[in-house]
Amino acid sequence: MLNILSDLKLTVISGFILALLLVLVVRPLMGGGFLPDAAWLAFLFRWLHVLSGVMWIGLLWYFNFVQVPGMPSIPDDQKPAITKVIAPSALWWFRWGAMATIVTGLILAHLSGYLMGALSLGILDGGASTPIGIGMWLGIIMWFNVWFLIWPNQRKVLGMVKAGADEKAAAGKTALIFSRTNTLLSIPMLYCMVAAQNGGFA
C-alpha cells in the first residue's frame, strides 16, 4: 500500500481502478447492469466533468488564495522555486483541467439532451435550461480567459517566452486581473451548476 501512495501516478491509477471496481461490483447490486446504457454514459461524463472541474477550480483558488498572496513574503532567492518549478507545472494542470471541464461538460449536455437549450440560455426550451445555461456560459468565459489571456501572459511572466521588463509587468497585471475575474465568476458559476440539479432557482 505504501508503494502505491509513494508514487502519484500509481495513486491516481489506483483511484481509477477502485472506482471501476465500484462500478463493476456495486452497480449490479443496486440494480444496474454490467453494460453501460445511455443514462450511465451521461453519469460517467458528469463524474468526469466534476473531476476535471475540481482540478481546474482547485488550482484557480490555489493561485488566488495561496500562491499570489504568499509571493511577497517569499525571499527573492527562493522565488525561482515557485516561478521555475511549481507555477509552470500547476499552470499545465490548470489549463488542461479547464479544457477537460469544458469538453466533458459539453459532451454531458449533449448526452443529457440540453446542450442547445443551455447554450441558448433557455430560449429554445422555454427556460428549462436557463440556470445550467448561465453556468455553462460563465464556464466558457472562464475557459477562454485561461487559454487566451491568463496562459499567454503567464508565459511572459515566467520567462517561457521573451519579454522585456515592461512587457512582463504588463503581462503580470493582465494575468492577475483575468485570474481574479475567473475567481469572481467561479462562485456564481458553481452556484448555477449545483442549482440546476437541485432547485436553487425554484
What are the defining features of this structure?
79% helix; flat; 202 residues; mainly alpha
What does this entry look like structurally?
With 202 residues, the chain is mostly helical. It folds into two domains: 1-35; 36-198. The protein has seven helices and no strands. The chain has helices at residues 2-5, 8-29, 38-70, 79-112, 115-119, 130-157, 165-198. α6 runs antiparallel to α7.
In short:
This protein is mainly α and 202 residues long. 79% of the residues lie in helices and 0% in strands.
Number of strands: 0
Major pleated sheet? none
**Nearest-integer average pLDDT:** 93
Percent strand:
under 5%
Structural class: mainly alpha
| SSE topology string | HHHHHHH
**Rg calculated over all Cα atoms:** 20 Å
Total helical elements: 7
Which stretches are poorly predicted, pLDDT < 50 over at least 5 residues? none
> How does the overall form come out from the CA principal axes?
flat
**Distance separating the two termini:** 47 Å
Helix content: over 70%
| Overall structural domain count | 2
